[in-house]
């Protein structure tokens, strides 16, 4: 069975909060694939998961196949699911047709839209960093595990005085910038 590694705030928590892992969860469910959820913290990703996968740069979402192979990145996982389960509904067309029965042009268009969103909303580009900055205080409150909280608040995670800088940002300015950043997406959706 596929193992699906999903980010939690602490190992005691069942609160899965990463939007990228949610994308993968929805893809697995849409394709009707059975999977086991393995909750991991940020420390687990950099420690145990990196060691087990032999990929020091691994991040979540990640899946482990029954043969021990790891695939990570929501888009790479979606492409793997699309190729591996072509008789199930396509992830990229939205019409409910199986990948095998879908028009290739529709699949390619869906993949291009998915890439656009993945490269925009899911990237660490400066114009999208405002979303992390905006939700950082709430994310900080979700982490109840002391060891994980110490790491999350550390200079090793966010750079020198990074935690303090993130906590002191002007929320009204962040909201203004966030609204500006979604305007191109709003225009695309209105077309």
TrEMBL record:
<dbReference type="Pfam" id="PF13409">
    <property type="entry name" value="GST_N_2"/>
</dbReference>
<feature type="domain" description="GST N-terminal">
    <location>
        <begin position="8"/>
        <end position="89"/>
    </location>
</feature>
<dbReference type="InterPro" id="IPR004045">
    <property type="entry name" value="Glutathione_S-Trfase_N"/>
</dbReference>
<dbReference type="InterPro" id="IPR036249">
    <property type="entry name" value="Thioredoxin-like_sf"/>
</dbReference>
<protein>
    <recommendedName>
        <fullName>GST N-terminal domain-containing protein</fullName>
    </recommendedName>
</protein>
């Amino acid at each position: 069975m596929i193992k699906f590694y999903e980010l939690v705030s602490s190992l005691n928590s069942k609160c899965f909060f990463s939007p990228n892992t949610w994308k993968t969860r929805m893809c697995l469910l849409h394709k009707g694939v059975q999977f086991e959820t393995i909750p991991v913290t940020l420390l687990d990703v950099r420690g145990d998961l990196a060691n087990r996968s032999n990929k020091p740069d691994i991040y979540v979402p990640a899946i482990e196949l029954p043969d021990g192979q790891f695939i990570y990145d929501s888009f790479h996982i979606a492409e793997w699911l699309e190729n591996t389960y072509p008789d199930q509904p396509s992830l990229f067309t939205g019409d409910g047709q199986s990948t095998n029965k879908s028009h290739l042009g529709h699949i390619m268009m869906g993949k291009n839209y998915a890439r656009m969103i993945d490269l925009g909303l899911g990237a660490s580009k400066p114009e999208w960093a405002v979303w992390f900055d905006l939700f950082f205080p709430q994310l900080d409150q979700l982490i109840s595990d002391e060891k994980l909280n110490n790491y999350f608040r550390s200079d090793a995670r966010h750079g020198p005085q990074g935690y303090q800088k993130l906590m002191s940002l002007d929320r009204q300015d962040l909201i203004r910038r966030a609204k500006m950043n979604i305007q191109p997406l709003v225009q695309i959706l209105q077309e």
